[in-house]
């Protein structure tokens, strides 16, 4: 902050495009606490410490800000899935490694939903096709979206012989539907009262079911 001649403080931050990022970060915090409904332009500008009209230089309306936050949250889902895979112990057997990486996609997805329910809800609040979801903001550190990470894991199952090639088409939609359904039940549905150990076991059983099904 710099002082002006009349003694008032003058903001000298948020130059060169930083305001857009600051608003997204502020809105992410709102989403973390209250889900997509909490993402409001005026609240985001207040948290970022700027005048309400400043947001319109970067976002046409509340929906535009919410979409940016949704995509950023989706990128965080991807990074959690990547971290789950990266934490796997080394496996010399390529078949065991492919299976573990596939399961880590599901466990990472469920872990994010339970640890960050507000951001999880926000990530999937704004609908969009898969082409749009492949934007940089929706990707993890590898440049892959959650959907692409799942697809890669399924391709590895085919390459190692765990999944028949003729059963590969569309398998990601079946797997994602099952895991996402459980995630929603755990954070917003009748399973939200489960003890964390029970929730973990439910996730393991669902992934077992998916493996057997595909």
How far do the termini sit from each other? 59 Å
Question: What is the count of helical runs?
Answer: 9
| Shape designation | elongated
Element order, helices and strands? EEHHHHHHHHH
Give the tally of structural domains: 1
The count of β-strands is 2
Helical residue percent band: 55-70%
Radius of gyration: 20 Å
Biggest sheet layout? 2 strands, antiparallel
The chain-level structural class is mainly alpha
Within the CATH hierarchy, at the fold level, what is the topology? Tetracycline Repressor, domain 2
Full CATH superfamily name = Tetracycline Repressor, domain 2
Keywords: DNA-binding, Transcription, Transcription regulation
Protein name: TetR/AcrR family transcriptional regulator
Organism: Streptomyces coeruleoprunus
DNA-binding region: 40-59
Topology:
Blueprint: E1 2-3, E2 9-10, H1 18-34, H2 41-48, H3 62-86, H4 94-115, H5 117-123, H6 130-133, H7 146-159, H8 171-187, H9 196-213
Antiparallel strand pairs: 1-2
Helix pairs in contact: 1-2, 1-3, 1-5, 3-4, 3-5, 4-5, 4-7, 4-8, 4-9, 7-8, 8-9
Overall description:
It is a single chain. The protein has 214 residues and is mainly α. It has a single domain, classed as Tetracycline Repressor, domain 2. Helices cover 62% and strands 2% of the residues. The chain has helices spanning 18-34, 41-48, 62-86, 94-115, 117-123, 130-133, 146-159, 171-187, 196-213; strands spanning 2-3, 9-10. It has a two-stranded antiparallel sheet with strand order 1-2. A hairpin with a 5-residue loop joins strand 1 (2-3) and strand 2. The radius of gyration is 20 Å and the shape is elongated. The termini are far apart. 34% of the residues are buried. The model is unreliable at 1-10 and 129-135 (pLDDT under 50).
């Amino acid at each position: 902050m710099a002082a002006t001649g009349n003694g008032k403080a003058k903001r000298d931050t948020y130059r060169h495009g930083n305001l857009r990022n600051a608003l997204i970060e502020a809105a992410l915090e709102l989403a973390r606490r209250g889900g997509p409904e909490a993402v409001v332009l005026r609240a985001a500008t207040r948290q970022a410490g700027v005048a309400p009209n400043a947001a319109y230089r970067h976002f046409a309306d509340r929906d535009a800000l919410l979409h940016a936050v949704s995509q950023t949250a989706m990128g965080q889902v991807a990074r959690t899935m990547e971290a789950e895979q990266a934490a796997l112990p080394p496996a010399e057997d390529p078949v065991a490694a492919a299976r573990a990486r596939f399961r880590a996609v599901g466990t990472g997805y469920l872990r994010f939903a339970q640890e960050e329910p507000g951001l999880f809800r926000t990530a999937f609040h704004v609908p969009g096709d898969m082409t749009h979801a492949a934007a940089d903001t929706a990707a993890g550190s590898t440049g892959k979206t959650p959907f692409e990470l799942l697809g890669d894991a399924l391709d590895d199952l085919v390459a190692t012989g765990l999944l028949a090639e003729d059963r590969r088409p569309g398998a990601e939609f079946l797997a994602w539907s099952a895991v996402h359904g459980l995630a929603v039940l755990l954070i917003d549905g009748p399973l939200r009262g489960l003890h964390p150990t029970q929730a973990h076991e439910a996730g393991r059983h669902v992934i077992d079911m998916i493996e057997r099904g595909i």
